[in-house]
Specification:
Two copies of one chain form a homodimer. By secondary structure, chain A is of the alpha/beta class. In chain A, strands 1-15-14-13-12-6-9-5-2 form a nine-stranded mixed sheet, with helices on both faces. Chain A is built from ten helices and 15 strands. In chain A, helix 3 packs across helix 6. Chain A is globular. Chain A folds into two domains: about 5-195 and about 295-380, 3-Layer(aba) Sandwich (Rossmann fold), CATH 3.40.50.1820; about 200-290, Rna Polymerase Sigma Factor, Chain: A (Orthogonal Bundle), CATH 1.10.1740. Chains A and B meet through helix 3, helix 4, helix 5 and helix 6 of A and helix 3, helix 4, helix 5 and helix 6 of B.
Chain lengths: ~375, ~375
């Protein structure tokens, strides 16, 4: 592997940073909808997005930021002064931050089928007057990209300086570079490969079947308990064994219950599951995980040949991986980088030594390593 | 790490091997039962065991073999000539095999709470006349060892030449060496550490909660679907990402169903889940996984200090790990070996380079590497 490590880069200092402050989500409607990859037309359609920074008059400073499975358009700042938490990537978005709002105009669009405002299985199906739920059409990562494209088109933005995303957001960033090569100048793909592995499919299958079992036996309440369990499993897959040792070890809880919670790690998982239930939806989860499974750029753009698909790329690309990520291990990204390099494309791979697993790009402790890797790439 | 690799050992040839042939399970009753670590007395008690080879007149050739979570006493040979499959470790038990029945007398005892004949949650609770189910008392690995001890006592066997086990069987082998140091001459611990990690606890928690959710919403049928899903998750944890790529890649099935099975790996998991359901029980699964979680030799024998616990060991010990085992990674075994070595105990660690994950010790392709590691240890 010619992957670079971050030791050389980590020396860069974290310069003074500011906050984006109060932000207001925008809503955009497409009454005609879009044609999905499954052949169905989804209409009407709405999308929610947020922007940070100021669009340059020549539109040369656009960063399209793609959120992950459980994220949304709210990437930075707060909606209200008393919001307990800022947006999901506030660590990296703002004046002086990795995505520097003094220079860049950042737009983050909530993905199709996500429960955070864009049309989803929770939206009203015009043919029934009821929420779509399982009548929502199947979607793929390509449909996510198409939704982002029509939003940008509607805003009159043709050229993207950089598309940036992690996890399923990294899938979208990667697909943008392949699908619309002439529109993307740089693409930064964090913790996402060119195709989902059978391990990802297997983990997602169990999560979906748990939700569907709950739905079958317990209706919506059962589906919600299923979603909690699915999230617990997903959460484990975002962490690593060393991270679990470090956070919980074998510590027990004060009032152990034999069949529910005896150990701290169990208590933590139940807590994570229940907070997720407050903010997510089982039907959306089913659709989004299936979109992940079906992600395969070689299949979609190269008739099964990833090399052929990647010949389309024109963007300068950087891939970032984390050593302890067992959901999307560095080897998957390295495969893509080596193909790009062998095609003479400008692409590199930065492997960050982190014990925090797949979620490292969201973990504050990793920021000193990750920030310079992003900032250097965006500003060079 | 001073762990040895198998390259030097693998040159040993696989000599001519024979089969143990038809075997008959034995049954032994303990009407008075035993006192469990939880303080309850479990009575009456029955245990099922099998033996292979011939007991030496001086009883110097006894190998106690400890099965894993889903195994039983039937480790080798067949019960009937037309059995489709032999016992679970037939690869390694027989004339000329790693556990050579020309030399050794091997005994394998079905563990407490396992559904294969020994007293379990499926047995009749004398206080109700109904199966115990969730009224079965909590058990620990220590109770498994105690059941094995009373069986050996009843058979008049005091001294064990070698105790051998993998996974939860490895936990028992390790605990034997700590609990009864004067009775164990050698202990071979395969893919098992001195304590379960929070990753193991987390995975087991999700599996148990899935079974319990099924039970709550769908009764026994729901618990059984829950068991299928639990097994699928466990099965993933026994494999590795490279193994899944190699076996399934992203292959799809001919008649895909969007919400059930689209990919081969999903079909495989459903198949594995349904065959497991034919041969296992959700209640037994709950108890056995909780026993795994609670395994911690430092806690049980050293007041939290593993070093203090391991001072008890007198046996010559060998630990075997597999590079791709992410359920019980080699680092866990290495920790134990280094403590034993620092105490001047004869212990070594063989790390086998295998892509087949935790289950490598059951995989035929790993036999050329594993057989000499076992045979050398047992025959030296």
């Amino acid at each position: 592997m010619d992957a670079r490590t971050t030791h050389a880069l980590a020396a860069e200092t974290l310069t003074a940073e500011g906050e984006v402050g109060i932000v207001t989500p925008q809503r955009i409607a497409f009454p005609e909808g879009i044609d999905l990859t499954c052949g169905q037309r989804l209409a009407p359609l709405e999308a929610v997005y947020e922007t940070y920074g100021t669009l340059a008059p020549d539109q040369s400073n656009v960063i399209l930021l793609c959120h992950a499975l459980s994220g949304g358009a709210h990437a930075a700042g707060r909606h209200h002064p008393d919001d307990r938490k800022p947006g999901w990537w506030d660590l990296y978005i703002g004046p002086g931050k990795a995505l520097d709002t003094n220079r860049f105009y950042i737009i983050c669009i909530n993905a199709l089928a996500s429960p955070y405002g864009t049309t989803s299985p929770l939206s009203i199906d015009p043919s029934s007057g009821q929420p779509y739920h399982l009548n929502f059409p199947p979607i793929k990562v390509t449909d996510w990209v198409e939704l982002e494209r029509i939003v940008l088109d509607a805003l009159g933005i043709q050229r993207i300086y950089a598309v940036v995303g992690g996890s399923t957001g990294g899938m979208r960033a990667f697909e943008w570079a392949v699908r619309y090569p002439e529109r993307v100048q740089k693409a930064l793909v964090i913790a996402a490969p060119a195709r989902s592995s059978p391990m990802v499919i297997a983990l997602n299958h169990i999560q979906r079947q748990t939700i569907l079992m709950g739905l079958e036996y317990g209706g919506v309440e059962g589906a919600e308990r299923g979603l909690m369990l699915a999230r617990m499993l997903a959460h484990i897959s975002y962490l690593s064994e060393p991270a679990l040792w470090s956070k919980f070890g074998r510590d027990t809880v004060p009032e152990a219950e034999f069949w529910s919670v005896t150990y701290q790690v169990e208590s933590y998982l139940e807590y994570k599951g229940s907070t997720f239930l407050q903010r997510f939806d089982p039907f959306c989860y089913l659709y989004i995980t299936r979109a992940m499974d079906n992600f395969d750029l070689g299949y979609t753009y190269g008739e099964g040949d990833l090399r052929r698909a990647l010949m389309r790329v024109q963007a300068r690309m950087r891939f970032v991986s984390f050593t302890s990520d067992w959901l999307f291990p560095p080897a998957g990204q390295q495969e893509a980088v080596e193909i790009l390099q062998s095609l003479g494309k400008p692409a590199d791979h930065v492997v960050i030594d982190s014990p925090w697993g797949h979620d490292s790009f969201l973990v504050e402790r990793v920021k000193p390593q990750l920030k310079p890797v992003i900032k250097e790439f965006l500003e060079e």
